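sorry to bug you again but im stuck and you know this stuff better than me. below you get a single protein, a line of residues and a line of whole numbers that encode the local backbone shape. mainly i need to know what kind of three dimensional shape the backbone takes. anything you notice is useful, everything is just below:

***
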Amino acid sequence: MAQPADESVVSAPTVAVKGATRPDAVVSINGALAPVDADGNFSLEVRLQPGPNRIEVLASTFDGQGRSQVVNVIYLGSQ
């Protein structure tokens, strides 16, 4: 996962989760499918709740290979 960085502190209610994987992979971010382009890039906007938010990205291929990554993002909420 290229972004967001772990322990990021943000003031917006959504964050773009971006990264790259194999073009034939299926990617889910917190359970929602993320589109993967022909180069393997993916991106999905994730809505945040005030406080700490756990974001989990799972990528798996049809040949059974898989990888996961978790980051935490802190949303300051409306001020």
Notes: Residues 10 and 75 are 5 Å apart (CA to CA). The mean pLDDT is 95. The radius of gyration is 13 Å.
